[in-house]
Design brief:
4-stranded parallel beta sheet, single chain
Length: about 140
């Protein structure tokens, strides 16, 4: 669909009473310009809660600033408390370090973050340690 179609659907959903909106992917930040336009449109329509579900690897300071200034909540999956499990699950070198670095940036800007710790055979013995790491070292409460 084109952007105008998405905006029309968002407006129709809002007219029907929807007040919360989540942008998901693939990875929404692969086309961050379009994502940002849709976020602005959602706020103009009147959505009270806007969330982006992302792996948080493609963020930079400008994108974090945009999220903060537009009161966008962020949801991220984390697969471990270090790169051993996380990078094996994502199959991407340094994805853990990029994700954690960007989580720290978002926390420092006051962005509301929701983390899903996904348990699987690779990381099942480290779930509690991962949750503790995210709460105590990063400062995320909603896990």
């Amino acid at each position: 669909m084109k952007r105008v179609d998405w905006i029309r659907v968002m407006a129709q959903a809002h007219e029907m009473g929807c007040r919360k909106l989540q942008f998901i992917g693939g990875e929404p930040f692969l086309d961050h310009e379009n994502l940002f336009n849709l976020i602005v449109a959602s706020r103009n329509i009147g959505y009270e809660f806007v969330e982006v579900y992302t792996n948080a690897t493609l963020l930079d300071d400008d994108k974090v600033s945009f999220l903060a200034s537009n009161r966008v909540n962020v949801a991220v999956s984390v697969y471990g408390m270090n790169s051993d499990a996380h990078d094996r699950v994502t199959r991407t070198n340094n994805s853990f370090s990029r994700t954690i670095s960007n989580l720290r940036k978002m926390v420092s800007r006051g962005i509301q973050i929701r983390i899903g710790v996904i348990g699987m055979s690779i990381n099942e013995e480290y779930i509690n340690e991962t949750i503790s790491f995210l709460r105590n070292d990063i400062g995320i409460k909603n896990i």
